[in-house]
Amino acid sequence: MRNHSHPEASISCPTCRGTGSLPKESASEYTALIPLSDRRLRPRRTCIKITGAVLLCLLLFTLLLVFLFPRSVHLSSTRPLIFPTIAQVDPEHNTVDLVLNVTANLTNYNFVPIIVKRVLVSPSYRSQVLDEKVIFPDAVVSSRSTQRVAVPLKLHFMSELAYVNFWLFMVQ
Fold it and tell me: Which of 152, 64, 153, 76 minimizes the C-alpha distance to 108?
């Protein structure tokens, strides 16, 4: 028979007492034949692994926020004055109809492309809202770019803005 002794401490195995086999009646009591003082059972670098996993999750979460968090979309115009393409003045009923074609720049600051489904336009004159119009341009603006969008407007002025009517009538 071979002697199965522990090579580092040169003592016999306490489980099999150096015989190399376990008795049948005590074989079901043992789940592992590794002594509790063995170095292989001690956790190694557990703190480093947990810290690394937490830092990796924080990095991935931060990158996800930076690239996928929605940013605002900016609508601006490069023309300070907008002139009508068609102006119809009716001095009898004191009304003016204007057809305007406004071009605006739509800037996307996101890292993903956007689709503009609906734009609400509220033209105003001297802090008075003239009309509200919803347009549906269906414009696709690619990521981090600017695209021009044409906004056609038709404004109808009635008697409450008679000074505008008179001014437009005098211009024609």
Answer: 76
DSSP string, the chain: ----EETTTTEE-TTTTTSSS--TTTGGG-S--S-TT-GGGS--SHHHHHHHHHHHHHHHHHHHHHHHS---EEEE-S-S----SEEEEETTTTEEEEEEEEEEEEEE-SSS-EEE--EEE--EETTEE---EEE---EEE-TTEEEEEEEEEEEEE-GGGHHHHHHHHHH-
For residue 172, what pLDDT is reported?
47
Tokens 């990796």 belong to 56
Place of tokens 């803005």: 161
Low-confidence ranges of the chain (pLDDT < 70): 1-15, 27-28, 30-33, 159-172
Are 101 and 149 within 8 A, CB to CB?
Answer: no
Q: Which residue has the tokens 């600017």?
A: 146
How far is residue 100's CA from residue 107's CA, in Å, rounded to a whole number? 22
